[in-house]
């Protein structure tokens, strides 16, 4: 038997409070939201998109400054898509919504004509 001390490397999870710089637009953080540094998410106030008094989607500024899975730059979280988009992507999506609105207007016009003819 050896008298030389033995060592082992054991990985442990150390939990401690971490102070992070917060952007001016951030409205706060969930108390239980971040368990790892990569989970930290800055969130701005949401803009809620509604129709008929019901929420359809929400959008707002977000940033995950320590993310290991996505960009660490600020973006816009759009709940309708479940994605975070950059400025050009948000503009492209808004343009697509404008195109969809035109299609819906055309369908509404077609329906109005059908209804005016008695639904035929």
Describe this structure in words.
There is one protein chain. This protein is of the alpha+beta class and 120 residues long. The protein has 1 helix and 5 strands, in the order E-E-E-E-E-H. Strands 1, 2, 3, 4 and 5 form a 5-stranded antiparallel sheet that branches. The longest helix has 30 residues, at 87-116.
Total strands: the figure is 5
How many H/I helices? Answer: 1
Measure the end-to-end span.
97 Å
The radius of gyration computed from the alpha-carbon positions, rounded to a whole number of angstroms, is 25 Å
Q: What is the succession of H and E elements?
A: EEEEEH
What does the main sheet amount to? Answer: 5 strands, antiparallel
Tell me the overall shape: elongated
| Poorly predicted segments | none
Instruction: Provide the β-strand percentage band.
Output: 15-25%
Protein name: DUF6907 domain-containing protein
InterPro entries: DUF6907
Organism: Streptomyces kebangsaanensis
